[in-house]
Design a protein that fits this description.
Distance between the termini: 62 Å
Radius of gyration: 22 Å
Number of strands: 19
Strand order of the largest sheet: 15-14-13-16-17-19-18
Largest sheet: 7 strands, mixed
Shape: globular
Length: 387
């Protein structure tokens, strides 16, 4: 079975971009169905690579093996195993995991050459975030490799509802209530919910940024907005913060935070409230962390999302005491780094604050980005000093 691309549309895929949009396809041979493995060629019938087909998806093919990769197996199951094994080997070569770090990204979708599959290991539970139909079809193969490579006791699959509808994937089975999993990060005992928590149950991508907050927190009053289960807040407390307030609307996440703070002997105040209510208060903080959920799911959402980021960051800047710091984040892949910095510039002007950008950060090295797929660099974390 073969997918031939239209003339002039092959260049990104020769360079390693894995997502073949429907508009780039000239013809399809062999009547492949959802999840079938197909060859992809350019208009001159030269083989670019092979990947999983989906006739109803915007991403018509997700390339997973390119021409010239003779060291990879040719069959789908073999490719899955090889990609996961290589992803784990790369992380271990840079010291991930570590004795004080047991929550990490095992596979990062396009960044590891296996589009549609992201996996976090939380303690001894692997959590797969499935965003493509092929992952459902090859779930036994995925689980087998993860158990072999990681030695995990359980593999949990999480499918975002919107993507489940788009890809035509089956609804996952009901998950009973389970106790949270304890993970280590920087020596702190934190709690994750692989079964019903947001995303995969823990935000491994902010690990290095939480370590930054810990280094900066000594003697400061710290406000953690959209705190989830309070990992930023607990790192701040562990770093010697004078006071820490963590705010979120999720009662289960806050309860995990309270339990974890108690396990670590840390003083953190957890508040269930709308962030907007807290931002309307008349008080100032020495260090503010603002890590909202994704506000732009696609490029079409960008205009409205940019306005929301603008208003949110203006209000957050107004909460920072003179000489204080703001670590503000965006996890919207559609909002590129330069655009986010422009929004922060405009927010500072509206807040009448003079700012310095001290550092622009992203996710940790266990979240690699392929140069041909810059959309994989979804997380922006900008450290600002405010006068």
């Amino acid at each position: 079975m073969k997918v031939r691309l239209a003339k002039g549309r092959a260049r990104p895929f020769w360079h390693g971009n894995p997502l073949v949009f429907s508009g780039a396809v000239e013809s399809v041979e062999g009547d492949p169905g959802a999840g079938d493995f197909v060859e992809v060629t350019d208009a001159e019938d030269r083989t670019i690579g092979w990947g999983w087909f989906h006739p109803a998806s915007l991403y018509r093919v997700r390339l997973v093996r390119w021409a010239g990769e003779e060291d990879l197996p040719g069959d789908p199951a073999g490719i899955i195993r090889a990609r996961i094994e290589r992803a784990v080997a790369v992380r271990r070569s840079i010291g991930i995991p570590a004795p004080d770090c047991t929550a990490w990204r095992v596979v990062h979708s396009e960044g590891d050459g296996i589009s549609g599959l992201a996996v976090d290991l939380l303690g001894d539970v692997a959590v797969a975030s499935d965003t493509a139909f092929w992952t459902e079809r090859y779930r036994p193969e995925i689980d087998g490799v993860l158990r072999d490579v990681l030695g995990c006791r359980e593999v949990v699959h999480r499918v975002p509802p919107a993507l489940r509808r788009e890809e035509g994937m089956a609804a996952p089975p009901e998950v009973p209530e389970r106790d949270p999993v304890e993970v280590l990060e920087g020596g702190l005992r934190l709690l994750a919910d692989p079964w019903k928590g947001q995303k995969t149950g823990f935000y491994c991508d902010q690990r290095e940024n939480r370590a930054l907050v810990r280094r900066l927190a000594a003697g400061r009053r710290v406000l953690d907005l959209y705190c989830h289960s309070g990992a930023f807040a607990m790192h701040a407390a562990a770093g010697g913060a004078a006071e820490v307030l963590a705010v979120d609307t999720s009662a289960p996440a806050l309860e995990r935070g309270r339990q974890a703070a108690a396990r670590n002997g840390l003083s953190v105040q957890f508040l269930q409230a709308d962030v907007r209510e807290v931002l309307a208060r008349d008080d100032r903080w020495d260090l503010v962390v603002c890590d909202p959920p994704k506000l732009a799911a696609s490029r079409g959402d960008l205009p409205a999302a940019a306005e929301r980021y603008l208003h949110l960051n203006r209000a957050a800047m107004e909460k920072v005491a003179p000489g204080g710091l703001l670590l503000t984040c965006s996890c919207s892949a559609a909002m590129r780094r330069d655009h986010f910095l422009e929004v922060l510039r405009d927010a500072a002007a509206r807040a009448h604050r003079r700012v310095r950008c001290l550092e622009v950060r992203g996710a940790g090295p266990d979240h690699p980005v392929h140069p041909a797929f810059p959309e994989g660099e979804y997380l922006k974390a900008v450290l600002l000093s405010l006068e």
